[in-house]
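call fold(seq) -> C-alpha cells
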Amino acid sequence: MGNSALKAHLETAQKTGVFQLTGKGLNEFPEDLQKLASNLRTIDLSNNKIELLPPLIGKFSFLKSLALNNNKLTALPEELCKLKKLETLHLNGNHLRQLPAAFGQLSALKTLSLSGNQLRTVPTQLSGLRHLDVVDLSKNQIQNVPDTVGELQAIELNLNQNQISQISVQISHCPRLKVLRLEENCLELSMLPQSILSDSQISLLAVEGNLFEIKKLRELEGYDKYMERFTATKKKFA
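ret:
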C-alpha cells in the first residue's frame, strides 16, 4: 500500500476520528497514526498481518474502540492498558496466549472479544473490570474456569468450543451474569455446578455438545428455578 493512500486515510481519520484500514496486508501498525493520537476514537486494522502492537498504542488516550481481528498477534504490550477510555476491544483470530498483567486497568472496557486465540484459562485480570458487559473467549484452549471468575462483572460470557472439563462453583456468584455459553466443551454433567441452576442470576445456559445429554440437565436439582429465570427473561424480551 502506497504512502499516498495511507496519507489519504490519515486525512480522513483526522476529520472523522475513525481510522479503518482492513484487509490490506499490513505487516505493522502504521507509525504515522501517532500524529492523530489525540484525534482518534476508533481504530480498525482487522484482517491484516500485524505481528506486533507497538508500545506507542498507549498514546491514543481518547480511543474508545480498537479492532485487530485476524492478525498475527502473539502478545499485547503493557502500554495498551493505559487506554482509560477504551470501551470495545476486538482481538479475534490471533495467537494470544495471555493478557498483559495490567489489563485490569482498562477501566472503561465494556466489550472484549478474544475468540479464536490460544488462551488456556479465563484471564484473572478480567475480574477487575467493573463495566464489562460481554466477554467472548470462544474457540480457545481453555480447560478450566478458575475461582476468580466469581468476581467477573460481565452480563454475557461465551466459552463455546474450548476444552473445559472443570468449572469453579464461584461462577454462580457472578453478580450480573445472565448468559453463559458452554457449548462444545468436555463437560461431564457432574462437573457442572448445580448452583448455576439453583442459585445464580444466569437465565440462559447453553451447554449443547458436551459429554452428557441435555435431557439429563432437566433432572438436576435447581432446574425448576433456572427455568423460572429463563421464562421471566423470555417474557421480558417478547
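The two ends are 49 Å apart (CA to CA).
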